[in-house]
Design a protein that fits this description.
With 546 residues, the chain is mostly helical. It folds into two domains: 42-318, Orthogonal Bundle (MetI-like fold); 329-546, MetI-like (MetI-like fold, Orthogonal Bundle), CATH 1.10.3720.10. The chain is built from 27 helices and no strands. The chain has helices at residues 2-19, 35-41, 44-77, 83-90, 98-109, 114-123, 133-143, 145-156, 161-169, 174-185, 187-203, 206-212, 220-227, 236-263, 285-312, 323-326, 330-334, 339-370, 376-386, 393-406, 417-427, 429-440, 445-453, 458-469, 471-487, 503-513, 516-539. The longest helix is centred in the N-terminal third of the chain and has 34 residues, at 44-77. The chain is globular, with a radius of gyration of 24 Å. The chain starts with a helix and ends in a 7-residue tail after the last helix.
Amino acid sequence: MLIVALLVLSPLLLIAYQSSLNGPFFAESSRVDPGAWEYVLGARQFWRAFGTSAVVATGMVLIGVPLGAVLAFIVVRTDIPGRQVLEPAVLIPIFLSPIVTAFGYVVAIGPVGFISLGVRSVVGSVPWNVYGLPSLIVIAALTHVPHTYLYVSTALRSVNPELEEAARTLGAPPWRVALDISLPLVRPALLFSASLTFLLGFELFGLPLVLGDPAGLLVLTTYLFKLTTLLGVPSYQMMAVVALSIVVVTLPLVMIQRHLLGQASRFQTIRGRGLALRPLKLGRWRWVALTIVVAWLLLTVAVPLGGILLRSVVKGWGEGVSLSRVLTLDHFRGLADYPNLIRGIVNTIALGVIGGAVTVACYLVVGLTQHRWASRGVAVLDFMVLIPRAIPGLVGGLAFLWLILFIPVLRPLRNSMIAVWLAYSTVWLAYGLRLISTALLQVGPELEEAAQSAGASPMRVRWEITIPLVRLGLIGSWLLIFMMFVREYSTGVYLFGAGTEVIGSLIVSLWGAGGLDLIAALSVVSVAIVSVALATALRLGVRLHD
């Protein structure tokens, strides 16, 4: 527990300390001074960024949560065609890197995007503007729908189907059953999803960087990123103030989520012997329901991925350009001309494969500590585990960079993948432990108790009983952590350097330099890696919606 506390609290305490200084913490001339707080809190740009983050987060809740709840009800509780395919497909956006998705939207529906030019040739103009606040809100909301779907669909599986069938027997249409029976019974999941979505709105970085920056739109994370080079040098103290401001907003939301999870069991209507979930028959409306789900998948998956794929195989694109004349694979061949790009691909795969396996092992140790441990220490550990959930990846990477610079013994890690791995593992601690805990809960306590009654030590019980029984769950957890590490980008932005390149941070760097061809090629590589891992997970029977 001490190690977890050090990993979680040390970076946050260092950020708080840095925010109280008038210069970098490593400078001998730095003194305690509230000037950074006065400057940032008195700056109009900070409050505009804060307001924009709040507006985007609110819009994501208003659009994404209702839509996610509707999709969950359609896929989980109705007889919509193709449910077995749709269930994993709905979660695809979670495993796509936001910076890749954002770039995909630009090349698909941007001013000279493939779809935009096709629409312009028909109607004479493009009826949307991908850059700006409205588009950012809509795209962010649509791409974060799976988070609501994930929790609401899980809750819906705990709803007694007899309650819905009774309403249908009395003549209630499916939409009335959903509004009056199903969704009210999963209210904690809806509230949890709303708080989570609002939290994710404040953590957005890739989407506002790509879709908002060209229009001069700043959110808190991009404002923090801009402060890196304010006045030509990193403004450490002001960066710390902004970073701490984000955590001040997100940490209470995480605590609210913790409370809501504790209340969820009060709404369970299936207890003891489970009941078969018989889908509600929609009749002719099942095709309307299928159209809703497919339309959302087209907008959130097909459009950005199609844009990325097409952009990666053309020399250039614009009005009047013939596709057949610009097809090429030179962008992929061009990756070989840049050793840092190849190194970034190798590092990303190694971080996912090796780093992911070591991370799962570390999470397993923490999970086993929590498992069947009847002590107040469990509550403390549980609280510690949740804290990283309140730290955006960008802030987490910055905090670990400063921690390495602050502690002399850690400075050799500055340009190593170990630093990146530590930051990734800490940022994804809450998610990873949830996966491990879910697997451990499948082990009945009577099996462990029988081994202990036979004289086996607790360590031997864990090694010979518990771990072998959850090995498939551990493999599934490793595959999911692998995908999270591959898609992660913001945590590596401040840890980016020679030898520590990963695909996500390279894309952020190339975006600033305007390297669209290389971004397209790297994005396809990233999507391909995630696709292989996702296909493997599904083949092994890993349940993505648990």
